[in-house]
UniProtKB/TrEMBL annotation:
Membrane topology, from the record: Single-pass membrane protein
Organism this protein belongs to: Anabas testudineus
UniProt-recorded name of the protein: Cholesterol 24-hydroxylase
Cofactor: heme
Catalyzed reaction equations: desmosterol + reduced [NADPH--hemoprotein reductase] + O2 = (24S)-25-epoxycholesterol + oxidized [NADPH--hemoprotein reductase] + H2O + H(+); 4beta-hydroxycholesterol + reduced [NADPH--hemoprotein reductase] + O2 = 4beta,24S-dihydroxycholesterol + oxidized [NADPH--hemoprotein reductase] + H2O + H(+); testosterone + reduced [NADPH--hemoprotein reductase] + O2 = 6beta,17beta-dihydroxyandrost-4-en-3-one + oxidized [NADPH--hemoprotein reductase] + H2O + H(+); progesterone + reduced [NADPH--hemoprotein reductase] + O2 = 17alpha-hydroxyprogesterone + oxidized [NADPH--hemoprotein reductase] + H2O + H(+)
Function: P450 monooxygenase that plays a major role in cholesterol homeostasis in the brain. By promoting constant cholesterol elimination in neurons, may activate the mevalonate pathway and coordinate the synthesis of new cholesterol and nonsterol isoprenoids involved in synaptic activity and learning.
Amino acid sequence: MAFFHVLLSWTSQALMLLLFLLFIAFLGYCLYLKHIHMKYDHIPGPPRDSFFFGHSLTLLKIMNSDGHVHDKFLEWTEKYGPVYRLNFLHYVTICVTCPETTKEILMSPKYPKDLFVYKRLFSLFGQRFLGEGLITATDHEKWYKQRRIMDPAFSSLYLRGLMGTFNERAEKLMVKLGENADKKTEVNMLSLINCVTLDVIAKVAFGVDLDLLNNTSPFPKAIEKCLKGMLYYARDSFFEYNPKNRPFIKEVKEACHLLRSTGAKLIQERKTAMQNGDDVPKDILTQIIKSAGEEESMTQEDEEFMLDNFVTFFVAGQETTANLLAFCIMELARHPEILEKVRKEVDDVIGMKQEISYDDLGQLTYLSQVLKETLRIYPTAPGTARYAHEDLVVDGYNVPGGVSYSFSSYVTGRLEQFFKDPLTFDPDRFHPDAPKPYYCYYPFALGPRSCLGQNFAQMEAKVVMAKLLQRFEFTLVPGQTFDILDNGTLRPKSGVVCTVRYRDYKK
């Protein structure tokens, strides 16, 4: 009996010690949090929702109501100016719109992508997702090695050779739209274009013929599930600990596994074919493997990076382009005078040709302006973040080092100080003779970490839009909203539902 009394006494003492240590740790964290607040509170910013969670609750409330957090960032910028502070637990983010700081940080390789933001995309709920691919790599040397491997696959000479695939896949979309025109049925343009852009990236990058306009595939839903999971995983640190979210988390992990297992299979098959001397497509996957083979050494880590980039290109290579095209169609349908002008250019340059050439794209200058203006108002990848170790002076404020800097092309594109009447859709802002925006327009980011696939995306978008304008009239179905859905990337919430009919060339 005495033994049990002693044991109980020891247990009570141990519990009391544990509680005391937890209290000391909690008190220490509170003091550290107070120190962080005092260190950065000279920088303006909205009032914190709470001492511990900072501004997290405001953003989570917007997300949970299917809102659009980038509009809140715009509101805060208009209220607090070109530099303001946000707190998330003990993390501080400095939101910046002043062009000089944007230039200094984004154009320099010494400011890495922010670890807190991009490491959240390494995996989703424990399942590796984008890993350390081109978008998410925070270590400059790792990123630079991958970029050097990837560059030949996106050279202008190589991209010229993709025109046949761009034309072929866009032509299939025209056939599908023709069927809708014949049947006089409504068309969800975003859904159809998603099929085409995924077809294109699968074919030209990996030699896979999905033909999604005529076949079903699990990939579109898997990509959408991963993007939605990415949104919650990156912005809500406590999402995975809520039991009610477990079914959704399971679906996200299964979607991640599908994409990565498919990539691993395709990479291995292609490498085996190349080693056996078989004929292989001269696509991006082959180019990546060839270039990687020229490195002095290929490690298992390098193999994993290739798989990371498979998922990166498969997801980002179709999602952003599809959203751009859907927004573009939406705006042209709302502005008949701009639609008429860009259609005339297509008629003058393309005429009745079915095959659009690389040289034709260079002559579609007004269409380029239309696409650029679409990305100004609706940047499908709305922002980026960098980390600064050293102290900086930003718009007169001394900002101590050790913080993340957030840059939003969505916000800068909608600020009156940079673009007059910013919500007015006006492609002439990007006329060749117009003044160039000074570090306030960066839908593909800026500097060494700018998007590798931007020329690819612009070529694809031009081919699809030129064929659409050449063949069809399209009208928005009344009653739909023009709201934006924040799904990691920005997309039209309505899907851009249209009626389509063949053009009357007698007009």
